[in-house]
């Protein structure tokens, strides 16, 4: 009986560790900073109600909430999938902090025009930070989520079976990127996007072929090439 209890406890521990690892990976592959998303709770009433109505009394009352939510952004860490944007994030956070400090100073003063300008600047800095992190296309984001697992887990652990098992899905996601339509503001990059997306698809197909051939060296080189091609695609919009 004692052995059964111990075995049961071990199985429960293993299952728990597996669930925790899966949850960690889910967080690391999601292109979102929850603390930044939460800041919208205060930006919304500022920008959509108090600012257009020139309700400076409400704008002044928001200071504690602004500071509370902003402090969480200052301390936030990017998920793994966004770490390549660390420099942009830090610069954006620094600019947001300056805007928050300016808002605090304006709210403590008596010049309503200065306060309205500070509210506009705070909204602008917040929106800029959101745009800096958001993927250009959902199809690229979905591709990157899977590629992240290939590059940061499967490749370093030499998990060839997992590379082979998921490479077809990577091809499918690359095909979706090729078929995606750029937003109107980026139409000028259309030809360059088509070329880079086609190269990403070709690299993904080559990786899938290496997996089907059980070519370990080819799989390793293939993951590296897909990663390089994705970086080239992403660079078009930076």
Q: How would you describe this protein?
A:
By secondary structure, the chain is mainly α. The chain has 11 helices and no strands. The chain is elongated. Mean pLDDT is 89; it is low at 17-25. The chain has helices spanning 2-28, 34-38, 40-50, 56-61, 63-75, 86-108, 112-133, 138-154, 160-179, 190-212, 216-235. It has 2 domains: 34-133, Four Helix Bundle (Hemerythrin (Met), subunit A) (Up-down Bundle); 138-235, Up-down Bundle (Four Helix Bundle (Hemerythrin (Met), subunit A)).
Summary, kept brief:
This protein has 238 residues and is mainly α. It has helices at 2-28, 34-38, 40-50, 56-61, 63-75, 86-108, 112-133, 138-154, 160-179, 190-212, 216-235. The chain contains eleven helices and no strands.
Structural class: mainly alpha
Overall structural domain count: 2
Please state the overall shape, judged from the principal axes of the Cα atoms: elongated
CATH class of the largest domain: Mainly Alpha
Oligomer description: single chain
Biggest beta-sheet profile: none
Helix proportion of residues, in percent? over 70%
**Strand-residue proportion:** under 5%
Topology at a glance:
Layout: H1 2-28, H2 34-38, H3 40-50, H4 56-61, H5 63-75, H6 86-108, H7 112-133, H8 138-154, H9 160-179, H10 190-212, H11 216-235
Keywords:
single chain, 238 residues, mainly alpha, Four Helix Bundle (Hemerythrin (Met), subunit A), 0% strand
């Amino acid at each position: 009986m004692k052995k059964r209890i111990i075995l049961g406890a071990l199985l429960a521990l293993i299952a728990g560790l597996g669930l925790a690892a899966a949850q960690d990976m889910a967080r690391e592959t999601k292109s979102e900073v929850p603390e930044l998303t939460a800041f919208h709770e205060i930006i919304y009433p500022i920008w959509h109600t108090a600012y257009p109505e020139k309700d400076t009394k409400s704008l002044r009352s928001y200071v504690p909430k602004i500071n509370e939510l902003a402090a969480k952004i200052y301390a936030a860490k990017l998920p793994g999938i966004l770490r390549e944007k660390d420099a942009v994030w830090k610069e954006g956070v620094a600019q947001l902090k300056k805007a928050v400090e300016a808002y605090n100073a304006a709210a403590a003063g008596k010049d309503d025009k200065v306060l309205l300008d500070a509210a506009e600047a705070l909204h602008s800095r917040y929106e800029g930070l959101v745009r800096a992190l958001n993927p250009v296309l959902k199809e690229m984001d979905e591709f990157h989520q899977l590629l992240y697992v290939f590059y940061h887990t499967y490749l370093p652990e030499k998990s060839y079976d997992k590379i082979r098992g998921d490479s077809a899905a990577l091809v499918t996601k690359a095909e979706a990127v090729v078929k995606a339509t750029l937003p109107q503001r980026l139409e000028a990059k259309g030809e360059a996007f088509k070329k880079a997306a086609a190269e990403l698809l070709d690299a993904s197909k080559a990786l899938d072929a290496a997996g089907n051939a059980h070519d370990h060296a080819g799989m390793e080189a293939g993951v590296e090439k897909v990663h390089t091609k994705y970086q080239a695609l992403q660079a078009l919009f930076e």
